[in-house]
Amino acid sequence: MFQLHFSSFLTRTLLTGIGALTLFGCDPESDGPLTGPPAPAGTGSNVYVVNEGQFNTPNGAISLFSKTSRAVVDNNLFTKVNGRILGDVVQSMTVVGDQGYIVVNATGKVEVVSMADFKQVATIDRLQQPRYLAAVSSSKAYLSEWIERGKPGRVAVIDLRTNTVTKSIAVGRQPEQLLLANGRLYVANSDENTISIINPTSDAVEATVQVQDGPSSLAQDKNGNIWVGCGGITRYDPVTFAVLSSTNGSLVRFAPGSPTNQTVLPFASGGPSNLVINGAKDQLYYSYKSAVYQLSASATMLPATPLVRRNFYGLGIDPQDNTIYGSIAPFTTTGKVIRYQPTGAAIDSFGVNIGPNSFVFY
């Protein structure tokens, strides 16, 4: 029988509608050597909020929040600066040096902007359900693409000097986040239980490692270990949408040199989402069952008590001061972001656009 796997992306496309903007108050040719991407050129005083928008409606947007003034500068920055819409389902944004790469999933493109003024400098198009971008040097990046549900995905190799796709690498089904660690690129294949490991010199998959079901997010801690957020997989009947099968999620940790030697922290039911790490890379954060949990990078078991009792669609940690950013995305109207101290105490909140899912600190 043909089965459907509904990820969070597909599920949220059912939550569509149009709403008005709201502002909230406080709510308690040679690629060159693999040198790694250049550091972002920003001061860290700005926070860019990625707003997906409503599925099949090209109203995705980028909001700009100033930490200095503690106010939203603009809730549709790309459109204001460039005089045109950004696109349908803005999935993610990555800064490489002084340029931003905005991945627009349903429109099948990446918009490249100058971070100095947010003016568009290039468009990488003809992509198939692009998800996340990661640079391995100042001239080369990789981009995950779903391609088609139920079939193998791919990772596009992008020349950042020309903003063109030079080749593609086949990986597992529904590849999500990418992580450059110890000279290798790790790809989370979310519709199975594997991580593809790519050699950036040869652009070839040199290993496929089994983890747990539904890997989607990746982080590297201060000890060099790689963490994988595995949310589990639920299969649905394509006609009745009845649940056919479901597996629980886990957090998985391993050293890059021995990816099959893993520490698995399983969840009794359901699974985690939004795995992120702080600037010191010694504390991880994730969402689970309508709460946010904090986990030490040296932990051998999951925490029992949440840090914040709130259900967030997106989660971010300011690398400068560990301020926690959580986004609420009703999709029927505009969303909002709540900020918390590292202790979990609420600071304030602000209105953004529709479907806020992640944060870029610059």
Task: Walk me through the topology.
Blueprint lengths: L3 E2 L2 H5 L33 E6 L9 E6 L4 E4 L2 H6 L7 E7 L2 E6 L4 E6 L5 E5 L5 E6 L4 E6 L6 E8 L4 E10 L1 E7 L2 E6 L4 E6 L4 E7 L4 E6 L5 E5 L3 E3 L6 E4 L3 E6 L2 E9 L6 E5 L5 E5 L4 E5 L17 E4 L6 E5 L7 E5 L5 E6 L4 E6 L1
Antiparallel strand pairs: 1-19, 2-3, 2-30, 3-4, 5-6, 6-7, 7-8, 9-10, 10-11, 11-12, 13-14, 14-15, 15-16, 17-18, 18-21, 19-20, 21-22, 23-24, 24-25, 26-27, 27-28, 28-29
Outline:
With 362 residues, the protein is mainly beta. Helices cover 3% and strands 48% of the residues.
Q: How much of the polypeptide forms β-strand, as a percent range?
A: over 45%
Number of strands: 30
The major pleated sheet works out as: 4 strands, antiparallel
CATH structural class: Mainly Beta
The CATH H-level homologous superfamily:
YVTN repeat-like/Quinoprotein amine dehydrogenase
| Number of structural domains | 1
Compute the separation of the termini in Å: 47 Å
Radius of gyration: 19 Å
